[in-house]
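step: validate -> pass
step: tokenize input -> pass
step: predict -> running
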Amino acid sequence: PWESLLAAWEDRPVFAHGCPPARWREDLRAAWQADRHALATRREAIARSLVVWSLGAQPDFRAMLTSCALPLLWLTGSGDVKFSGLGQEIAATTPGISHHMLPACGHRLPWEAPAATATAVAGWIARHWSRPDE
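step: predict -> pass
step: emit ->
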């Protein structure tokens, strides 16, 4: 059943330590709930994306990231243990990669902490991509 699938997805460990949707800004929570409801009409596409985008189907991109010549921001929430650990690991070995962790957030930063996410990204852009004449 669709609701069981969504509940099982939301119960994944990667989402366990974040701010639950009930604590998101009202506009973001309403948009998320509407998007979730709309997904029911696209079940085949969702099933395919869950398989194709699963970490078990993705290659390990760490070697590629460590050879990246451009600056890169790895932004995670402090509760996203897995991806914060990967970010710390890669940032420690790759000079061009910056890892920034937002406190009291999990995996869904733009929804859990939209202002803090925007501030972190804007600050990183200003440090790494601003033109000298500005």
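step: describe -> Residues 56 and 87 are 19 Å apart (CA to CA).
step: cleanup -> pass
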